[in-house]
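PROTEIN ENTRY
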Amino acid sequence: MATSDIALDQQIETLYTDHRGWLGRWLSKKLGDPHQASDLLHDTFMRLLAREEVLAIQEPRAFLTTVAQRVLANHWRRQKVERAYLETLALIPEAKVPSEEERAILLETLIEIDRLLDGLSLPVKRAFLMTQLDGLSHAEVGEVLRISNTTVKRYLLKAAQRCYFADVFPNT
């Protein structure tokens, strides 16, 4: 293990030891559920452990609050996608409802698509989803969104780049 890895692990261990109780209470107040707060506390520190460089932290609680707010935002976005998915499933005839395994895979896929499209404008997201999920042609998307075929293509290229190159350029 490299010296920087050891230093990072020690830094995170100190953050955890010194601030986990405070952060857990902060998350519990935000969520109103101590069990979910515990899960998100874990997720917050897992996110820190995934880092590769030593952190330059001057205000530990402010830093942890920022990281936890991002984890919390992801949690709420995931819940929103899950609610919409369950509402859609409720509209499907029982004979066509996917199995539990298929539902889990579909939900994870939707959440990943939502994460990948995060940061794109609403029209870009809508154009992408209309072509990919609804099977609409470029012309049909243009009609619905009241934009030109060229703009539809530009939107789709932007969304596709975000999805296909997410691992290469995670913050684009």
Summary: The chain has a mean pLDDT of 89. The domain at 3-94 is CATH 1.10.1740 (Rna Polymerase Sigma Factor; Chain: A).
